[in-house]
Specification:
The chain is α+β, with helices and mostly antiparallel strands and 366 residues long. Helices cover 32% and strands 13% of the residues. The strands form three sheets. A five-stranded antiparallel β-sheet has the order 2-1-10-9-8, with helices on both faces. A three-stranded antiparallel β-sheet has the order 3-7-4. Strands 5-6 form a two-stranded antiparallel ribbon. Helix 2 packs across helix 7.
Amino acid sequence: MTSIDEFMATGVSQGVFPGGVLWVARKHRTVFHRAYGRLSLLSSVPVTRDTCFDLASLTKPLATTLAVAELVQSGALFPAQPLGEILDCRGYEDKKNICIDQLLRHTGGFPAHRPFYQTLVNLPWEMRRKHLRNLIMAEPLVAPPGTRQIYSDLGYMVLSWIVEKTTAMPLDRFMGQTIFSPLNLDLFFRPLGKKQVNQGRRQFAATENCPWRGRILSGEVHDDNAWAAGGVEGHAGLFGTAQAVGTLLGHVLEAIHGDRTGRIPGKVLGQFIKKEPGRERVAGFDTPSLAGSSAGRYFSVNALGHLGFTGTSFWMEPCSSTVLVLLTNRVNPSRDNLKIRQFRPRLHDLVMEKWKGVSDGGAEIP
């Protein structure tokens, strides 16, 4: 059988991604953590286990969802609360009855994506955030709230707005103070135009050679709308290491299993991850599709995961406390590279097959 090292090295040599880090844990013990490849196709600097990646849409479960869960636990918000009770929806009557739970589950009726950045880049920085929110509220819904599950960046932009409105601080600061810093996790946003405190020595995997920014991106958010809005949004903007992602997910699993001593609001998350009939996504997370799942063949229907556009992903199995994190920069130099779609489930299957010969005593994957 092909080894994990061989398979990851093949991913690099065949151009699936320039570099990547694979992190696996079981029963809250790290059993595999290795780095592969280079920071970019034009770099000779190797990726290390401490390399930071643009996590893209992993921002949704790891930052926005946890922020909302924290606020629900404290009583500042509740899942059935409509937007009209939190935000000024005058003139946007179709939005006022969308509730927080629908936004988390992608059933609010918002479209998947809109290229708002094309308008925002023509405005001064200080006007962009407000204008973005006006554009979102003015965007026609593509389905009545609650009727269809449409994976939507827009809904999570609204959720970050709700967090900011409720806490009087932006999402990055709220998450830093409540979860990331207390847990000593190397997870962070990089707001544009602000000095990055204690980040000077960090190593970043490059992403795309951006056609409209005119440069290879490194250490600045890849997502166009998040960048144009200032670098901090509910759908994208989070950076971090594979170990930080995996460690946070370990805390999430502990909280879901009933540990009430940590920083993660497990009781609320337990409600969030209850699946609605006929739908694959729960509140904040994805679950394996019935056919062709990126999770591969061995994760159960109760597994939780998420993908990021830049080539990042995680899957975790609550029943066995298994966590698998794959961070890559498959969009370097171009987002047109889609080889990871076939690579990712095969890697997951390979890792899970290795468990057959590993006892629960905590031995590392061979």
